[in-house]
Design goal:
Elements: H1 3-29, E1 39-45, E2 49-53, E3 56-60, E4 64-71, E5 78-80, E6 87-90, E7 94-98, E8 106-108, E9 114-115, E10 121-122, E11 128-134, E12 140-146, E13 153-154, E14 161-167, H2 179-182, E15 200-207, E16 213-222, E17 240-247, E18 265-273, E19 280-288, E20 300-302, E21 313-319, E22 322-329, E23 332-334, H3 346-352, E24 359-361, E25 374-380, E26 386-393, E27 398-403, E28 408-414, E29 416-418, E30 426-429, E31 432-434, E32 443-445, E33 454-457, E34 459-461, H4 467-499
Length: 503
């Protein structure tokens, strides 16, 4: 009689259902754990025992055993947060984290990240998130590394180009015989030019290599018939304006201008407009040639350098000993990046003029219409020192810094990893998994690429535990445990009856 084997079948049932209840309890305990993935248990029967029967050999089962405890990696719902560095993964993949100053890698779905006082991108346990540093174009630099901000400032960038698009009133008249000779004379010690000596002005703030700002002002005055020595084409005098590009004289540190009345004048020239359309069609630009007196007409020659786009350049010096080249964009460019027929000095240009065939108006260009002079558009490409104000993370994992100087810079790209056999990952606590031999090596990549999910900022992935399903499992597991305990008590009664055969 194999009554006693039923005891062991009951014990196996108690053991497997007890372990199942432990898994259910763990799931319910972690119903609010960020990034938690629930587990499930599966049972299997134990190798059966063969017995002899009247019809031959048959089998009697010997109970149940725990087949496996599987992790369910289905997506959890997202919880919105106010922290931009709270991240959630929509799809496959794990965040990669490491202990500080170690190369050991762990993997997690919990994206509660923040920056510590040392600039490390850490989770609540102090593990550092890993990713790729980025260049200005958003390309990866180097290999996967701990994410750390080494500086919370944006260095300054000196101005390389200014754009001043204006409309100059075609009804205006000339205020002075020469705008250049009227500027910075003995009667204007503190102002570049008197208010009655120009028709219009527009100012642009530029930056030097140290991040300091300086005001650059462009003054305009309608040309007159006496201004041929400024290179004004004699056949278009009614549609031509003189201009000078100036800075504060105290900011002009060019040594040759130290004692000159023209200190602070960076460039001079003319702009000519089409008589029919009013659009800018050509310009002249003169800079000091370094010879003679800088306040004399004959010492200024056509700008000898052009930007890569064909705009005339001027050399300023706002930091002592540091020349600064600035392209001036008024709405037309040289298609040859050269002064066609350019002469050695202003006097020669007065005789020959500067051909206009090399100039090409741009889509946004200065105009001369019969309306009030005004600035249509102006910009420059420099900026001062900026301080990090906030960080945002895109769905592609690119972490962008927003700085007080208006710059938006690429910082890092958050790295993700996936596994061929993620069921074989080992739980190490703290919402972390570690790779095993059975899981295979981590396959790292960018979010949204090669089967990896995308990253959602201001979000956390909630636990994927279905509490209703867990309570149903709890009921069935409890009943299974209860039924197996009844097997043991029933077998005990049967054995008692057997013992009672002899009194």
């Amino acid at each position: 009689m194999s009554i006693s084997s039923a005891l062991f079948s009951g014990i196996s049932g108690l053991s497997t259902n007890g372990n199942a209840m432990s898994v259910i309890g763990d799931n319910i305990a972690n119903v609010n754990t960020i990034g938690y993935k629930s587990s499930r248990t599966t049972f299997q029967d134990v190798l059966a025992q063969s017995v002899a029967t009247a019809s031959g050999t048959s089998q009697i089962g010997r109970g149940a055993a725990l087949s496996s405890i599987d992790t369910l990696f289905q997506q959890g719902s997202f919880e919105s947060t106010s922290n931009a560095t709270d991240l959630a993964i929509g799809g496959q993949g794990f965040f990669i984290v490491s202990p500080r100053a170690e190369d050991t890698q762990y993997y997690t779905r919990a994206g509660q990240f923040r920056f510590d006082s040392d600039g490390y991108f850490i989770n609540p346990e102090g593990y550092v998130g890993r990713g790729w540093a980025l260049d200005d174009n958003g390309n990866d630099v180097g290999t996967l590394q701990p994410v750390r901000l080494s500086a919370f400032t944006s260095p300054p960038e000196p101005t390389n180009a200014i754009t001043a698009i204006t409309n100059l009133n075609s009804e205006d008249t000339s205020k002075v015989a020469s705008l250049f000779t009227s500027a910075w004379d003995a009667n204007n010690a503190t102002e570049p030019i008197g208010d009655a000596q120009y028709g219009y002005q527009t100012s642009i703030r530029v930056y030097d290599s140290l991040g300091r700002s300086h005001d650059v002002t462009v003054y305009y005055d309608k040309a007159s018939g006496s201004e041929y020595d400024d290179g004004t084409p004699t056949n278009n005098i009614d549609n031509t304006w003189e201009y000078i590009v100036t800075s504060n004289p105290d900011d002009d540190l060019r040594t040759a201008f130290a004692a000159a009345d023209s200190r602070g004048i960076l460039m001079r020239g003319t702009v000519a407009f089409n008589a029919t359309t009013g659009a800018l069609e050509s310009q002249t630009s003169f800079v000091w040639d370094g010879l003679g007196a800088p306040d004399a007409d004959a010492s200024w020659i056509p700008s000898t350098t052009f930007s890569s786009d064909g705009y005339p350049e001027v050399n300023a010096e706002f930091v002592a000993g540091v020349p600064q080249t600035i392209a001036t964009e008024f709405g037309t460019r040289s298609t040859t990046s050269a002064w066609v027929g350019g002469a050695a000095n202003v006097s020669a240009i007065a005789a020959n003029g500067l051909p206009t065939s090399s100039w090409q108006p741009q889509a946004l260009t200065s105009t001369q219409y019969a309306s009030s002079s005004t600035t249509i558009y102006q910009t420059q490409d420099g900026y001062g020192t900026g301080f990090l104000e906030n960080i945002s993370v895109g769905t592609d994992g690119i972490m962008v810094g927003h700085y007080s100087n208006g710059q938006i810079l690429n910082l890092f790209r958050v790295g993700l990893a996936k596994f061929n056999n993620q069921q074989a990952l080992s739980k190490v606590g703290g919402n972390l998994w570690s790779a095993t031999r059975d899981s295979g090596d981590a396959i790292t990549g960018h979010p949204g690429e090669n089967g990896l999910g995308r990253v959602s900022s201001n979000s956390l992935e909630q636990s994927n535990v279905d509490i209703a399903a867990e309570f149903v499992k709890m009921i069935t597991t409890e009943r299974g445990f209860q039924a197996n305990s009844r097997i043991i008590t029933t077998v005990d009664n049967m054995l008692q009856e057997l013992i009672n055969l002899k009194r």
